[in-house]
Write a structure and sequence with these properties.
single chain; transmembrane helix; membrane; transmembrane
Length: 266
Amino acid sequence: MLGKLLKYEFKATARTFLPIYGLILVLAIINKLFWNQSIDNFEIPRMISMSVYIMLIVAAFVITLVVTIQRFNKNLLGDEGYLSFTLPVKAHYHIDSKMIVTLIWSALSIIVSAVSVFIMVVNPEVLTQFSRMCADLAEVYRQYGLSAHLIAIEIIILIILGFLSNIVEIYAAIVVGNLAGRHKLLAGIGAYLGFGIVEQIVTSLLFSGFNRQIEEYFQSFHYSNNLFPAEPAEVALLVMILYTAVFGVAFYFFTNWMLTRKLNLE
């Protein structure tokens, strides 16, 4: 059933994102052609094309946030909610499908943006610099060995978990705001800000409580062969992953519980 929900979500959102991605890539090619011309008459078209390109890049990420909120609110808490919750599907499958689709579109937005920038700036000099950067990175991997791969994996996991945690935090704020009578939007914004304050308080308490131990741990390491020791980076990333996961899981189960027990479709 999750597969069917994912398919439905992709169909509902693809019509928004695919045209934007196509325009971004087309404008990247146009900008490349314009900026390769030395004719003065191209100055205005260059500026217009670049301005539109930048606005589309910003729009791709803003629309991702808007669609995240709009799809969850409309499909589960609006008029469509009556249909959605009559399906033989548990509430967490709806959350899962929307989280996964939002994550994929966000990743595609980053990839398309990076590809478009590469299209505009690519030339023999850039390719040479890129090759040097890859060689330097390969040398770092050679020096650190397995630790470099572990750190890279931890960074990827942290980014994904952080993004998913932010998504379910938004969902949790939406379901809280939905309980308000007339001012659901303001209540949702207030709930989101409240969640953020709670996170900041918890973070401050943890750091103040373990600040001395953290300092002593990092001071116990020393540079070797002009390389920063990998172990503290591995441990720090692991702690951040666990910390992010705890909040993400808490928001996830809270959202699922609210949709299951406190659903208000009036």
